[in-house]
Amino acid sequence: MSLTDIIEIIIISVLIYYMLVWIKDTRAWMLLRGILVILAFVLLAVLFEMNTIVWIADKLFNVAMIAVVVIFQPEMRKALENLGRKNILVNLFNFDFNKVENGKFSDKTITELVKACYEMGKVKTGALIVVEDEIVLTEYERTGIAVDGILTSQLLINIFEKNTPLHDGAVIVRGDRVVSATCYLPLTDSLSLSKDLGTRHRAAVGISEVSDSLTIVVSEETGKVSIALDGELYRNVDAEFLKNKLAYIQKREQDTSKVKSWRRRLKDVTKIRKESNE
């Protein structure tokens, strides 16, 4: 193996690494998982000599490649725009591994979050707060206005105060900081939600369907506090319930295995349903 081969391996490894980081920070990750499921199905068809399925897959391959480009077009455009803005050499050789890990929030942040939510509930100030966990919400963070301030109850109350520039939309919390406000979130298409729920509740469920975040909603009409997690909405929760859920997310380990992660999320939903029924 020559020096050229070693350099080539390093370059390809770096490119693959940054491509995976880009995929993880966008909706492309969900689409990629769907594609991997289809590829696994085709592989099984090849192994078991299911000739008809293999023939169909072969004929659809060229069309599928074009479809992938069309589906990923918004993400690819953003990636190329970001690449054009950055200093490539600095980014290639500046490996800051601390940025990969998402810091967990402190006990003080939990206290400030709970305090802000129920103080806003008393005066019926509507609020939508997304607490980020393992899945980074960079894509939705970009739709809002950067704040990057230490989370306090006063900051949250001021942001959601009526007739202020930042009150409309969602706040994204990462670690102990409010990173962005007035963010746009995807609305859920679920038909199981009550018709008396507004856009805030639908947005809370929508973001919980595409990420592992915990979203807090303060109703502007009733002042009641609800949380959304893993596509489920738990309405009218008390302060102790909210504090326990935030504390649980704070202390749980970040699983590197996707199978463990999905098992953990299923266990979380089951536990929360049980506690809410009690």
UniProtKB/TrEMBL annotation:
<keyword id="KW-1133">Transmembrane helix</keyword>
<comment type="subunit">
    <text>Probably a homodimer.</text>
</comment>
<dbReference type="GO" id="GO:0106408">
    <property type="term" value="F:diadenylate cyclase activity"/>
</dbReference>
<dbReference type="InterPro" id="IPR034701">
    <property type="entry name" value="CdaA"/>
</dbReference>
<keyword id="KW-0808">Transferase</keyword>
<dbReference type="Pfam" id="PF02457">
    <property type="entry name" value="DAC"/>
</dbReference>
<dbReference type="GO" id="GO:0006171">
    <property type="term" value="P:cAMP biosynthetic process"/>
</dbReference>
<dbReference type="InterPro" id="IPR045585">
    <property type="entry name" value="CdaA_N"/>
</dbReference>
<keyword id="KW-0472">Membrane</keyword>
<dbReference type="InterPro" id="IPR003390">
    <property type="entry name" value="DNA_integrity_scan_DisA_N"/>
</dbReference>
<dbReference type="GO" id="GO:0005524">
    <property type="term" value="F:ATP binding"/>
</dbReference>
<keyword id="KW-0812">Transmembrane</keyword>
<comment type="similarity">
    <text>Belongs to the adenylate cyclase family. DacA/CdaA subfamily.</text>
</comment>
<dbReference type="InterPro" id="IPR050338">
    <property type="entry name" value="DisA"/>
</dbReference>
<dbReference type="Pfam" id="PF19293">
    <property type="entry name" value="CdaA_N"/>
</dbReference>
<dbReference type="GO" id="GO:0004016">
    <property type="term" value="F:adenylate cyclase activity"/>
</dbReference>
<keyword id="KW-0548">Nucleotidyltransferase</keyword>
<feature type="transmembrane region" description="Helical">
    <location>
        <begin position="30"/>
        <end position="48"/>
    </location>
</feature>
<dbReference type="InterPro" id="IPR014046">
    <property type="entry name" value="C-di-AMP_synthase"/>
</dbReference>
<keyword id="KW-1003">Cell membrane</keyword>
<comment type="function">
    <text>Catalyzes the condensation of 2 ATP molecules into cyclic di-AMP (c-di-AMP), a second messenger used to regulate differing processes in different bacteria.</text>
</comment>
<protein>
    <recommendedName>
        <fullName>Diadenylate cyclase</fullName>
        <ecNumber>2.7.7.85</ecNumber>
    </recommendedName>
</protein>
<dbReference type="InterPro" id="IPR036888">
    <property type="entry name" value="DNA_integrity_DisA_N_sf"/>
</dbReference>
<feature type="domain" description="DAC">
    <location>
        <begin position="73"/>
        <end position="239"/>
    </location>
</feature>
<keyword id="KW-0547">Nucleotide-binding</keyword>
<feature type="transmembrane region" description="Helical">
    <location>
        <begin position="6"/>
        <end position="23"/>
    </location>
</feature>
<keyword id="KW-0067">ATP-binding</keyword>
